[in-house]
Write a structure and sequence with these properties.
Helices cover 86% and strands 0% of the residues. With 122 residues, the chain is mainly α. The protein is flat and about 50 Å long.
C-alpha cells in the first residue's frame, strides 16, 4: 500500500469518530436513554467492526497465500457472531431504540459516502 492509501485509511478512521461524536451529541438532545444507547452501541459496533476488518484485510494483503485467504474467510464467522450478539444485547437487555441503533450502525457508511463525494468532486 502507498502512503496515500495509509493516509486515506487514517482519515477514514478519524472521521468515523467525528461523525460518531456528532451523532452521539445529537442523540442527547432527545433526552431518551433508549436513543442514546442505540446510537452509542451502534456507532461503537460499526467502528470496531471497521477496524477489525481493516486489520484482517491488511494481514491478508501482506501475506497473500492460499492459507491466509482461508483464515480470512473463516474469520468472518466469529465477526458475524459478535455482531449478532452485540445487536441482541443492545435491543434486548439494554433496550436500545432500533432506529437509533440503525443510525449508529451507519457511521461508517456515511463516512464512506462522504469520502466518495469529496474525492469525486476534487
Amino acid at each position: 500500500m502507498t502512503s496515500d492509501d495509509d493516509r486515506l485509511i487514517q482519515d477514514l478512521a478519524r472521521r468515523n469518530w467525528w461523525i460518531f461524536g456528532t451523532m452521539l451529541l445529537t442523540s442527547l438532545l432527545f433526552r431518551s436513554r433508549a436513543v442514546t444507547v442505540g446510537v452509542l452501541g451502534g456507532g461503537l459496533t460499526a467502528i470496531v467492526g471497521f477496524q477489525t476488518l481493516h486489520r484482517s484485510l491488511k494481514r491478508l494483503l501482506m501475506n497473500p497465500d492460499k492459507q491466509s485467504g482461508n483464515v480470512f474467510l473463516w474469520g468472518i464467522i466469529p465477526r458475524l457472531l459478535c455482531l449478532a450478539c452485540a445487536v441482541f444485547l443492545l435491543i434486548g437487555p439494554l433496550e436500545a431504540q432500533p432506529l437509533a441503533l440503525v443510525i449508529g450502525l451507519s457511521v461508517v457508511v456515511i463516512n464512506l459516502l462522504w469520502t466518495t463525494v469529496v474525492r469525486s468532486l476534487a
